[in-house]
Design goal:
Number of helices: 3
Number of domains: 1
CATH superfamily: START domain
Low-confidence stretches: none
Strand content: 35-45%
Structural class: alpha+beta
Radius of gyration: 15 Å
Shape: globular
Strand order of the largest sheet: 1-7-6-5-4-3-2
Number of strands: 7
CATH architecture: 2-Layer Sandwich
Distance between the termini: 40 Å
Order of helices and strands: EHHEEEEEEH
CATH class: Alpha Beta
């Protein structure tokens, strides 16, 4: 059973590839996500690739790119004791030509309800801010 912690949504006039390129450049995640001290990917941005993320508050965490549809979506997963923390990223083109960017953070596993108690407040407070910051950076670069 998946437990959704938070979903964030934004739209932009910037091309979808601009957002996906930013997501694929893992070393730059800290530029728009102020909760990240640093992040790095070990190898190419591809399904099965692994990386490490260092939150500003908390220990380093390994993640894996579990699903990838280049230019459209990707899912990265971190394993926690008794749970999986999943970040789903999706870009779609709307009928008016703008792109929609959606990020959903969820938990699954036997201990997911406990992890939700520990993590939900922080993710809920910052998910939309983080996505809005990404839009700001991408649009400024156009």
């Amino acid at each position: 059973m998946d437990i959704t912690i938070v979903s964030a949504h934004a739209t932009s006039v910037a091309p979808p590839a601009s957002f996906f390129d930013r997501w694929a450049d893992v070393a730059t995640w800290s530029q728009w996500d102020r909760d990240i001290a640093w992040a790095r990917l070990e190898g190419p941005f591809a399904k099965g690739s692994t990386g490490i993320i260092k939150p500003k508050k908390g220990p380093t965490t390994k993640f894996v790119i579990e699903r990838l549809d280049p230019g459209r979506s990707f899912v990265d997963v971190s394993r926690l004791a008794g749970a999986r923390l999943t970040f789903s990223h999706l870009i779609t083109v709307e009928t008016d030509g703008r792109c929609a960017i959606d990020v959903t953070i969820s938990l699954s596993g036997a201990l997911a309800p406990i992890w939700k108690l520990l993590l939900a407040k922080g993710f809920t407070a910052t998910a939309q801010i983080t996505l809005d910051r990404l839009v700001e950076i991408v649009e400024a670069a156009q």
